[in-house]
């Protein structure tokens, strides 16, 4: 089995976390949304984008 799918999944996870962290850190700290909310939203966006790749 190739290690590439696991490496790609790990990179996408890091990308989602990085984007979520950036949005969370720039956002309203009084908001009810925590870091997990932003990271999961970024992961959902990545998931949706990958479906267009075919």
Explain this structure to me?
The chain is an all-alpha fold and 54 residues long. It has one domain. Helices cover 74% and strands 0% of the residues. The protein contains 2 helices and no strands. The chain has helices spanning 4-26, 35-51. The longest helix has 23 residues, at 4-26. The two termini are 22 Å apart.
Give a brief description.
By secondary structure, this protein is mainly α. It has helices at residues 4-26, 35-51.
Question: What key attributes describe this structure?
Answer:
74% helix, mainly alpha
| Mean pLDDT level | 89
Radius of gyration: 13 Å
- The number of domains is 1
Tally of strands: 0
Q: Give the terminus-to-terminus CA distance.
A: 22 Å
The backbone outline, from C-alpha atoms, is: elongated
Q: What's the quaternary structure here?
A: single chain
Biggest sheet descriptor: none
As a percent range, the share of helical residues equals over 70%
Low-confidence sequence ranges: none
Helices and strands: which structural class? mainly alpha
Could you give the topology of this structure?
Blueprint: H1 4-26, H2 35-51
Helix pairs in contact: 1-2
